[in-house]
Every structure is written in structure tokens, then in C-alpha cells.
Amino acid sequence: MTAGPGRPWVPTPDSERRSLLTISGPLIAAYLVEMAMLIIDMIIVGRLGSTELAAVGLAGDWFYVLLLIGMGTVSMVAVLVAHARGTGDDTATAATVEQGLRVATLFSLPVMALTWYLGPMLALAGQDPGVVAAADDYARALTPAVPAILWFTVLRNYVTAIERPMVIFGLSIAALVLNACLNYVLVFGRLGLPALGVAGAGAGTAIVSWLMLAALWAHVRRHEPIPGVRWRHAFAGGDGVLFRRLVVLGLPVAGAQLLSGGMFTVAAVLVGLLGATTLAAQQIVYTVVYLSLSVAAGLGDAVRVRVAFGMGRDSPPAARQAAAITFRMALAVLGAAGVVLWLLPEAIAGLFLSPGDPDAATVLEAAVAVAAAAALFQMLIGLQIVAANAMRGLHDTRTPMLFAILGYWMLGLGAGATLAFGLDLGAPGLWWGMTGGVTVSAALMVALFFRRVSVGPAGQAA
Fold this sequence. Notes:
The chain is mostly helical and 462 residues long. It is built from 17 helices and 2 strands. Helix content is 81%, strand content 2%.
């Protein structure tokens, strides 16, 4: 690390890479495992038919969007804890965790209500009745998972901010195995239990979510204790000013993530108007894209923490270096993932389809048609995710939301809907439109971040 009179603290590039990998490596693996849980759910449910596959994919998309209301808000726990570490303030760390749990408790209530009534909302959107019925069963079984997931997210942000995220990977591996077994048993009815169909997949995920929360809470209490934390403040009381600050900073994060997740979900609804088989293909491609975005999410968590830590040490150059290294890592990994999706779409899509399904050939053809656009899209939106998290490390949560409005909705979905329906290009047109939108927003976000942390002669941010 380098520092001196009049010079800010800056770690060496090798040291920074190690810190980024220490944080992002286990989190990327954990996100990939979480996505593997969704993939296994879809593979299991896909054996029931393409309608059930489409229903679980669509309901899962909407459930994730709803969760972002709370998950995005409490994500600022990592930023505030990392900043407190940079300044050496343990009291602020404890208070941040307390109020993060309190925010999660508050936001879990509306998310549960919206999840419970997801089926009727999809019906109002004109979706296929068979898809709506199956999605309703899945969503209602999944509803009890909401508070467990949000509380788990707070604790995950804490262990990420203190750069001890390996426990998240271990818990995710255990959850993957348990979730696969539970869902198989509950969906098809094994070990003397009734076959619950798609509802079994939702129930299995809810059970696993609560077990993961219990395990992480026990780990934090025993191995990563938070000095001075008062767990009762997860429900009421404590630092009201900090509670409001978390909400004020976190709501734009939730807004940006809702805009991102909403883009995927609205795109799925639009594709659903083209038919159930095209929607099934869309969900298959989404699953593959989400895998690569798991890498972006892990890198985003890491750069958010490292930028906040650097700013806590009053070092814009350290924040700049952390972001530059992370951007290069993201482009390398996501570029490789794009090449795989572009070159091997048939093999990938075939994993999700039952040979006996009469619609399998149609679904496969529709998935292959959008593969090239999806390959480029996932790389660019991944860079956007990393850049947005770098901005949040600077405590700027509004700019990423504004760029999400511009890139995802005004340009992306606007152009995509025009190409898909106005010019009759169908699903490929929708994907190319979204790709154009995220290209603009990613480029602007990266440029603005570096402008914010540009360094003048005195070593201060310009």
C-alpha cells in the first residue's frame, strides 16, 4: 500500500485485486449456486410441461422484482458498514445492522401481500390462463420465504462489508442440495408425501430460505459478532436518524433494481403475448443470462464495498483503482459467457426441455433466435450493474436509478417493443432493443463514475 505526506492511501494493484477476489469470489459462487437452485427448479418443473415451466419462470421473475423493493433498500448496509470500517467506528457498524434488519422487517409486509396476489395480477396482464393458474400456486407457496430472504440479505451485506463472505458460499452449497431434494419430493410426491406440482417447488424454496437465515444468524452470533448490537431493534427502536438514512439512500437502489428487474419481467409479459412456447423459450434464455449476471452481482458487491472503504479512508484514488480493476474483470468474464451463449444455444436450451414435450422443437427454435442478442445484452447489463454499485459506494444512489429509467425503459423497452411489434420482428427485436438501451446507460455510468473520482494535483477528488 502507498501513502505519504499529502498523498492519499492507495493499496497496490495486486493487493486490491486480492481484496476484490476475496469478497467477490465466494459471493459469485453463492450467486451461481442460487441461480442453480432456480435452474434445478425449472428443470424439475419442466418435466410437468411447458406451461408449468413458463409459469414458474414468469412467477419467479415477478417474485424477484418484488423482493428487490426490500433487498435494494437494505443493500446500503454494506456501504455504511464498509465506510464505518474505514473510519474505525464500531458503534456505527452495530447501529447499521440493527436498522437494516428493521428496514427488512418493515418492507417484508407489502412484498408478502403482493406475492400472495401475484396470480390475479398476471391474469389482469392477459397471460395464458393455464400459466396464471400454475403461477398462482407457486407464488402462494413461496410467500412465507419473504421475511427470511430479506433478513438474510441484511446479514449477508454485513459479512460482505467486513470481507468475510465465505460463509455465504458454504450456506448456498448446502441450500442447493437441500432445495433440489425437497423440490423433487414435494413436486412429484415421494417418501409418502402427496404430489404438489408447482406449489411443491415454492414450498421447498420457502423452507430452505428459513433454514439459511437460521444458519447465518447462528454463524454471525458465534464467529463474526457485532459489538454492541441490540437484536431487538430489528423490530423497533434504535437510531431513528440512521433508519431514515438507510431508507433514503436505499429506496433509489430499490428503484433502480426494480427498473432493471421490471425490464426483464415486462419483456417476459410482452413475449407472453406471442404465445406460451415463446415465453418458455424466453425463460430459458433468462436463466442463462441470470447465471452470467450472478458474476456481475458478486463483482458489484465487491466494488461497492471497496469504493466505500476507500472513501472512508479519504482516498478517491483508491476508489478509482478498485472500480477500474473490477470493470476489467467484469468485461473479461461476461465476454467469455457471451461467446458460450452465442455459439452453443441449442445445447443450452436442450437442458431445459423434455424430449417427450410436443412443443420442445418450437421452444428450442425460439430460444436460438434470440441467443446472439442475449449474449451481447448480458455483457453490457453486467457492466451496468458493476458501475451502478461503484456509484453507490460513493453514496450516490439516485444516478443509477435515473440511468435505469433512461437505458432500461425509455430506450431499451421502448425500442424493443417497437421492433418486436411495430416492425413484426418478434422476440429477437425486443432483445436487440433492450441491448441498445443498456449500451447507452452502461457507457454513461462508467464515464460519470470516473469523473466523480478524478484526482487533482493535491490528491483530492475534482
